[in-house]
Amino acid sequence: MFNKNRQREDPEVGGAGMADIAFLLLIFFLLVTTIDVDTGIGLQLPPAPEENQDPPPIKERNLLNILVNVQGLVMIDDEPTPISEVKQTIKDFVTNRGQDPNLSDSPDKAIVSIKTQRQTPYKTYINMLDEVMGAYAELRNQASQSEFGVPYSQLEDEGERQQQVQDIYPKKISIAEPDEG
């Protein structure tokens, strides 16, 4: 009656529901996972000029030319400059207010022109651009401190005061097309 030598069958798990479970897990992880999106360099472009409109005349003294060459060397007005000195050079150029005849007439007329070559090292270009943006950030912070007694970053909610500081030190940066060399 009881046969002890009888072999039992191995139990099997039904595989029909496995595809459904895998699909539901896939959807779950797609919905829950966040994907980092690189934002790039945030620059506000000027409005497009009208057709047949000539560019406005610019005095040479109001234009600071920065070139980053293939070797990663930063040249400000054809003079080699270490990246660590770019910020101070720009601050001196913008805040000159006509005192030095080789620098800008006023912060409103000062234009920083950035030009690269096609094979310029990207890291050097970004470091130099950070220095340019940092110079304007420091100038605006100083103006905000002297005018309103608070750092510029705290004026984000106060549009009128923030605009007043931006009018004192407008950020006029021209990024030219790279050279082929």
Features:
alpha/beta; Nucleotidyltransferase, domain 5; 34% helix; 11% strand
What's the mean pLDDT score? 84
Query: What order do the SSEs take from the amino end to the carboxyl end, as H and E?
Result: HEEEHEHHE
H/I helix tally: 4
The parts where pLDDT drops under 50 for at least 5 residues are: none
Measured distance between first and last alpha carbons: 96 Å
What kind of sheet is the major sheet?
Answer: 5 strands, mixed
Q: Give the radius of gyration.
A: 30 Å
Shape: elongated
* Helix/sheet category: alpha/beta
InterPro entries: ExbD
Subcellular location: Cell membrane
Keywords: Cell membrane, Membrane, Protein transport, Transmembrane, Transmembrane helix, Transport
Transmembrane segments: 12-32
Mind explaining what this structure looks like?
This protein is of the alpha/beta class. It has a domain at 60-175: 2-Layer Sandwich (Nucleotidyltransferase, domain 5). The protein has helices at residues 18-32, 86-94, 122-148, 159-168, and strands at 63-68, 74-76, 79-80, 111-116, 173-175. Strands 3-2-1-4-5 form a five-stranded mixed β-sheet, with helices on one face. A hairpin with a 5-residue loop joins strand 1 (63-68) and strand 2. Helix 3 (122-148) crosses helix 4. It starts with 17 loop residues before the first helix and ends in a 6-residue tail after the last strand. The mean pLDDT is 84. Belongs to the ExbD/TolR family. Its main location: membrane. Keywords: Cell membrane, Membrane, Protein transport, Transmembrane, Transmembrane helix, Transport.
